[in-house]
Amino acid sequence: MYSLGQGLQSKKRLKKGGNLGVNGNKFSLGYLIIIIAFIIFLIRGITVIKSYKEPGGYAYVQMLNFSMPVVKTAVYDEGVYADNNLSLKNVVLEALGIRGINAYNIVGKEIGLFSNILGGSDIVSSFKKLTPFSLKNESIAKMTAEEIAELNKVSAAYDPSLKKNLDNSKPEVLIFSTHTTENYSERENLTTDNDFNVVGVGEILANELEEGYGISVIHDKTNHSVSYSEAYSRSNETLKKYLDEYGDFKVIIDLHRDGVDGAKAEQLKSVYTINLNEQNLAKMMFVTAPNSGRYEANKAFVENLYNIGNKLFPGLIRDIHEINPAATAINYSLSDNFILIEDGSNVNTAQEAKLTSKYIARIIAEYLNR
To answer: Could you tell me the pTM of the whole model?
Structure first.
């Protein structure tokens, strides 16, 4: 009996030990799967970041801020990275393959018939074809009659002595926007509505230069933001096209607006706004690219405009901001007379930015008349 009991106990121990071994293997395998998944996620995340040609490496900056909050407090300037679309959140979502996921895209991917029948790969646009379009006036922002009247008034910045006869045979100024859909506060997101984006501001600027000062302008409204990561390469092609056709311009403007995180919008409204001549205006900023192939000439040109503007309208220009390396360097490298202007930010109204554009026109007119 003793031997039999010992044998039974040995079998139990063996069985128990075997189970522990299996569980231990399962436990180790689970950890291994997690580690492999994490490595794959990191590789995908790094690939996503590298595929986006954006200044400043915003996603990297957010990672650093997350791990070392003191850095954010001490040296981090969020405004530097305002134009970046690739945040840490977007990197994570894209690495996991769920960025921009919605019911339309799920159905479109699972049922290819919809794409074939409705046309194209954009399943969202295809579905919209099936739904009658309706628009409620109370659901959209519109320019008011008062705002339109204010824009039609002669600006306090205007100097009639600078006006000359308009000569369209050789345009002097080229205006375009790399980030064409950048919105102002009337719209929560990027928009193609020119009443509330940088293109609409460019329209006011071009009109003021031509009608107010007799300066011939080309305002290109090409949407370069169809793909955000390719926006600068697209605008670079646009700029090359005009330079090939007309030669160099006296002034080339890439018109943008700055960006502010939504949670800080109210706090920073005053930073981006100035009351001048009894009007609220969006403050402007010049951005330069030290990695430009023409940096010294670019810098001299920008500083010239800055000095004119600062003398005429103190406080209107925030500063000259250098980003190195800057994505816009490919455009700066094409002309000595190129300048990137940030007209306000997303916390400003489009009206404030449009009123500022008349001050920009005065600065340019002063420069061209020297």
So the answer is: 0.66
